[in-house]
Structures are given as C-alpha cells and as structure tokens.
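Researcher: Can you fold this with iron/sulfur cluster in place?
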Amino acid sequence: MTPAAAADPARHTAPSATVKSLRTRLRDPRLRPVVEKVAEGRRLLREDGRLLYETTDLHAVCGLADLVRRRLHGDLAFYNVNRHINYSNVCALRCSFCAFRRRRDEEGAYEMDIPRIVEEAVRSADAGATELHIVGGLHPYLPFDHYLGMLRAIREAAPQVHLKAFTAVEIVHLQRVSKRGREGEAGLRAVLEDLRAAGLGSLPGGGAEVFDDRVHDAAFKGKIRAEQWLEVHRVAHEIGLNSNATMLYGHVETREDRLTHLEVLRREQDRTLAGWAAAQGIARDGDAVVLTGPAERHPRARLPHPGAAGLDGGYFQTIIPLPFFPDGSDLGHLPGPSGLENLRTLAICRLMLDNVPHVKSFWIMQTLPMAQLQLAAGADDLDGTVVWYDITHVGGASTHQEVGVDDLRRAAREGGFIPVERDTIYRRVERFGPTGRDWRSIEPTAS
Ligand code: SF4
C-alpha cells in the first residue's frame, strides 16, 4: 500500500460487500433492523444495544463493529511508543475495585520525586517514546505546585514528548489542593490552564468507571460522580485539550449500566462536535453526530482532528473499555468478565459510540492475544509499548510490562491489518535517523 492510500482508509475498504455478507449470514433474525441501521449509518438506540448484548450471534455483533471500524480506518491498526509513569500510589481514597492504592504508611507505598520522574522521562525519550502517560493516586499532602513543577521539569528535559497526564479525578483533587480560592468551573478552568501552561498536552480517560450512582456508591464511593468527570473533560475540551474516555466494567455494574455510560458519553460528544459536524455537512439524526455511516453520508471529513475548521477545542478521541481484574482488590470474590464478554463489550462500544473516532484495545488489561482478536471486532488501536504499568497487575504479574514495537506490529499483521505508529492525537509518526529513535508527526489529511 502506498502512503497516500494508508492516509485514506476509504480507498482500501469494500463495506458494501461486508453488509451483504452480514445480511446473508445472520443467525439471529432479531438483529436485522440493527444491521440495516448500521448499513445506512443511523444511530443505534438503547434497545439495539440491549439486543447486541442478548444475542447469541456474537459473530454478527463483531462483524457489524468491524464494518464500522473499516469505514473509519480501513485496515489500519494504530499503536504508539509510550511510557507510563505512575508517580505515586499513595491515595486518600479506597475504591473497592482498586489494587493499586496504599496509605502513606502502608507497606508498598511509594512516591517518585521529580528528579526520578525526569530521569524516567529522559530515558523514555532517548528510547524513542512519543508520549508519557502520567497518573497516580490522590496524594493527600503534595501541593499543587509540585505537579506544575513536575510537568515543567519534564517539558524542559524532554521537550518533544507529549504529556498525557492526570485523570479527571486527579484534576478535581488538584483543584482542591491548589488552595487558590478558585471554586466551580472557573477554578477548574484556571487549574487546567495552569497545567497546560506547564506542559500538559491532553487528558487520559481514566476515572470514569461506570456512570451510575448505585455503582458509584458500591464500588468507588468518594470518587467524583459522572457530572464532575464530564465537567472536567468539557472544560479541557473548551481550552483545546483532547481527551479519552474509559469504561471499567465487569464488577458490580450491569450491562444496562454500561449502555447508560455509553449513552452519556455519546451525548457529551454530540454537544462537543455539533459545530464542526454542521460545517462538514455530516448527515444528522436530530442532534446526533454520526461519524460511522457509509462514505456517501460523509461528503467532507469524517473524522475531526485538532484545529479542524469549525472545531474550536478538543474532543473525546478514543473510548477504552477496561475489563475489571479482581485480584488484590476488595472485590476479589468476583470472577471478572470472560473473554467473550470482553470481545462483545468492545464491539458494542464501537457500535454505540458512533461519534468517537477511535476504540482502543488496551492490551495490558485485555492481554495482547485478546487485543489482536479485538482488532477484528471494532478496535483500531492497540495502545503502546507500555513500561511500568502499576495500576493493574494482570494475574499478579510484575509491574514491568512491555511489548516491543515488533510484537505490536506482528499482532496487527497476523490479523491482516497494517500497523501504523501514531502520536497521542493520532497523527502518523515518521521515524528517521540511524537508530529509528528520532521521529516527527505528520499532520493528518482529512478522512
Ligand atoms: S482508583 Fe484511583 S482514586 Fe480510587 S483508590 Fe485507586 S488510586 Fe485512589
């Protein structure tokens, strides 16, 4: 494939053939209306999502998600070269699903000081990382200036690396500890602007869990509720930062709760993209901004990118479904979701979130073999060559988790996909120089 073809997914897909084969092979006739809606690019409703969860025809569910994924991204599979820095596991909260947090005086508690964080950042940059993903617990004693100093020091030592840092829960915590008398949305905006000035490039999607008050009170009481999580991301988008959104599932929530979560995110993204979608002439069902329809419904750009005409700020670029791992948490008696449930849930995320460009299969929590399968069930992104991921220890494994670029590329190729390195905001990355550690981002073409 030529680079030009790689930049234009529509040139190497044949979605109509896929729709035809889906219609022919359907084993559950109840899915027929859903297939027609997806074929026409119409928004799926909650009852459609319910049916996608109920049906035994998992092949059809995955096939529909694959159709949508190929409309958006053709056979490209994105990955990035990144490093995670979990600066401290000391946390004032005690979410029952969390095996990461410690009290400050508890065995296993740690805090990385700024020189150590900078050292890690420089080592990562020297190894060719394009992104640092920086999150931690809600530390009860560190002042706001510490976090600004951390970002500034990294920015100075590793200026090219994108800093994706602090979940919405941490941002609200930072607003509280900033002690600058700034409350409400104005305070939130000021805190985010301070962080951006210090080097913050985007927000990760963590801390969303599942948007439901019952689930919140049962599994992560004390954490911010949905409205506050959404407010943080809304303000971040307004000041021009992109962000992601997660859904942590497979604990005390129900499938209905997951559908609620996806609907809430979809509504928020509709609002965020409304102006841009109108400028693009994207066909709309009422207020719905549906990006996943067939090519003829998208006369101009299908996917937004930072700085696109009509788009003043940021938006949710990726949904990341995260299966719950019970080991080491207060919910250790629960079984956690099965492989088939992981496959189905990711496919449903792709189908219901018709206005979010990317779906990530986060291999650390899904495992790389499952992530490879999910590339054919709606995922277009494998995340990165993560090192030092402390938040979840899969099967009690060591915290040092890494796959090489070759592993990720092979996983994509084995599934018939074309691996493409991306930066944090999904521009293609071009490597050059004798070692391949030097890189530059290439501005996206309209797609
Ligand atoms: S999930 Fe986050 S906020 Fe909750 S206990 Fe763990 S580190 Fe703290």
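Model: Folded with iron/sulfur cluster in place. The pocket of iron/sulfur cluster is lined by residues 91, 93-95, 98, 100-101, 137-138, 169, 220, 223 (CB under 6 Å).
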